[in-house]
Specification:
About 85% of the residues lie in helices and about 0% in strands. The protein has about 100 residues and is mainly alpha-helical. It has helices at about 5-30, 40-60, 65-100. The radius of gyration is 18 Å and the shape is elongated.
Length: about 100
């Protein structure tokens, strides 16, 4: 590997790709009505992005408080994602019971 191109640059590239992917998915859904709505993936995407930012902080030897803040933010985003999925699952189960009855 090129000594001038380290792990921090790879992480930066993955972060940029993730942000571009998020923008592209959102734009595609808004323009066509197809694909995945942002509300269905944004919390999950944010959780992953926060973990990548924590990893980037470690690779750049940043303050441990910065790492902890990103890990905490990832946990919060993950919790929000789980809660949203749980609510959707519960609503789907109620709707299915109504259709059977």
């Amino acid at each position: 590997m090129n000594p001038g191109f380290g792990i921090a640059q790879i992480i930066d590239a993955v972060i940029v790709f993730t942000v571009v992917e998020c923008i592209a998915l959102t734009a595609y859904h808004r323009l066509t009505g197809k694909g995945v709505a942002a509300r269905d993936f944004l919390a999950n995407m944010l959780s992953g992005l926060c973990l990548m930012l924590a990893l980037r902080c470690l690779a750049r030897e940043a303050d441990p408080i910065c790492v902890a803040a990103f890990v905490l933010a990832a946990g919060v985003a993950h919790g929000i994602d789980i809660r949203m999925r749980w609510k959707r699952s519960r609503r789907a189960a109620v709707d299915a019971r109504r259709m059977v009855a």
